[in-house]
Request: fold
Amino acid sequence: MGTILQRGITGFRDRCDQPLPMCDLNAFRSACHTVSRVTQCSLPAPIRQLNDQRNFFMALFATPQGEIAALLNQHFPLLGFAVPSLPGKPLRFSDARELANAFTQLGMYRVLSLSDLQQPITADELARLSPTEIEQVNYWKPTSLGQIIFNAWD
Reply:
């Protein structure tokens, strides 16, 4: 699959770096509404940026199997899925095949699988991050790539 992490993916940057790119929240909302129609899953909550500490947008889908959250990194078009959790609790990443297929068909995002999100962190992946991001990784001690891509570090 190749390298997933890119410089700036954590939402942190060095002072001298250019501002980070931003994914379009309105485009994500539109994509989620399209996916909702295609999959016949409802969107029971507003699609929004949850707070200033999270580096991702979240859309909650009500599926026949229960609620699933679609997560979009704010800075890179990487999308994954998690079981909704309480604030302050770690994300539990999940596969959501029907939703993943629908998002993939849109061609807007790189949809990450559960195995991608649970992948252990390697030196090769970390080599792409800035020194400031490495400092954050060392402080927060994530154990998987998903925990770096979708984080609530402050």
